[in-house]
């Protein structure tokens, strides 16, 4: 190979390299902050799963027979599972946003939305105070329904 061929190959390689960089920039998904659309998706996901589970007599029976220790453990396990999912799942378009340095923003929003939607679903369906007639039973049922609504909340947000 002579010098001219080597220079032509070098230019072609540089051209290919610059085109690959352009393609990589085009294909790269920019991570986005939590926004109003994410908030609506979390609400929608929570509603989709909260209402069917809130209307389920098995959930009422399980929550009626739960102790507060079981309810507390269920709530802690739900928060821990949500934290692990948000922290270690490779959801490509989520930008990490923490409150107080270590609490993921999506954990708080998803958990609060799920708790509120779970409580509202029991109230809207008339299950509380119609069927569930004590406040402690209501709280335990909200915690149990939240286990499922948080899956819908974070799942729909992650699926987009």
From TrEMBL:
<feature type="transmembrane region" description="Helical">
    <location>
        <begin position="67"/>
        <end position="86"/>
    </location>
</feature>
<keyword id="KW-0472">Membrane</keyword>
<keyword id="KW-1133">Transmembrane helix</keyword>
<feature type="transmembrane region" description="Helical">
    <location>
        <begin position="137"/>
        <end position="156"/>
    </location>
</feature>
<protein>
    <submittedName>
        <fullName>Putative membrane protein</fullName>
    </submittedName>
</protein>
<feature type="transmembrane region" description="Helical">
    <location>
        <begin position="107"/>
        <end position="131"/>
    </location>
</feature>
<feature type="transmembrane region" description="Helical">
    <location>
        <begin position="39"/>
        <end position="55"/>
    </location>
</feature>
<keyword id="KW-0812">Transmembrane</keyword>
């Amino acid at each position: 190979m002579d010098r001219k061929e080597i220079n032509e190959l070098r230019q072609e390689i540089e051209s290919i390299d610059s085109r690959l960089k352009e393609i990589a920039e085009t294909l790269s998904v920019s991570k986005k902050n939590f926004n109003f659309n994410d908030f609506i998706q979390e609400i929608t996901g929570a509603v989709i799963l909260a209402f069917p589970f809130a209307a389920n007599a098995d959930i009422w029976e399980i929550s009626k027979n739960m102790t507060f220790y079981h309810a507390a453990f269920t709530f802690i396990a739900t928060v821990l599972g949500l934290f692990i999912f948000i922290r270690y799942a490779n959801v490509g378009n989520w930008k990490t946003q923490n409150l107080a340095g270590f609490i993921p923003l999506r954990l708080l929003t998803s958990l609060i939305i799920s708790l509120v939607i779970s409580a509202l679903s029991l109230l809207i369906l008339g299950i509380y105070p119609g069927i569930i007639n004590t406040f402690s039973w209501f709280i335990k049922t909200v915690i149990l329904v939240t286990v499922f609504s948080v899956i819908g909340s974070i799942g729909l947000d992650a699926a987009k």
